[in-house]
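Feature request, filed as a ticket because there's no other form

It would be nice if the structure record came with a short human-readable summary line next to the tokens. Right now we just get the raw output. Example of a typical job, pasted below so the devs can see what we mean:
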Amino acid sequence: MRNFIKHTIILFVLLTFISCKTDTKHTIADLKTKIENQISDIDGDIALALLDLSNESNSIMINTEESFHAASTMKVPVMIELYKQQNEGLVNLNDSIVLVNEFKSIVDGSSYSMDIGDDSDDVIYSKIGTKQTLYDLMVPMITVSSNLATNVLIEIVDAKKVTQTMRSLGADKIEVLRGVEDQKAYDLGLSNSTTANDLLVIMKAIAEGKAGTKNDCNAMIAILKRQEWNDMIPKYLPETVEVAHKTGTITGVHHDAGIVYLADGNSYALVLLSKNLSDFEKGTDQLAQISKTIYEFFTQKAL
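Raw output as currently delivered:
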């Protein structure tokens, strides 16, 4: 009798434990509520787009149609266009060009140069005057957000064609007008812009092999996984988690857009956009915490 009672108690405890574990499974609505609470604590304007690539009914869209300065997130469309034009026979990523530091303003065609002090890639400036392959410029454009490499490449592919290609992918509002540090254009309000929704569309297209050939999309993902600026989406994720992403930063603005690959083989696309951040470092960390919240939802570790 004692054994029966003992076994009954053990069974009851186990069933209660299992029931509790089941009850703690959170929904996408729970996640959205927590994210909205986290966003409300950020002193700035925020947009967020999240899509479960394994189950598209799991999505969260917050201010996704609001326009933001694209900052360096526009370098992903430039990469897509490079692969597209290679398939069309217009360029070859293995071809070499002489690296120059002179560009034309879209306003009046006047010349301007990049300042090494304003670029996150200082290595490339030692290569000015030497031959570099388009591929060897494209990689640092993404991984270290090289502005000099970006301007060289965008003059080759043409900003208008980049925007046209984004339209063909379903990104209806993103505008790639020019390269970086075109002060005359900036003064006239002629800047590259995007929405969280458009960056989500672009990342989804890359993840699903629809932003180019399947091989080209895999190559893009491999480059995006080499991103060296990791203080937002990946910051609080386990080091074993792979993230293919691109950041963007200017004064008061910090973005990150990418694909997070989970250990179970599933993945999700996440876009975090910000502007008017009163405290850049604090705002960046708060956005990184939101990324952590999302990861914990998908792994059901916490919420």
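Something like this underneath would help us a lot:
The radius of gyration is 22 Å.
The chain has two domains: 26-66+195-303, 68-157+171-188.
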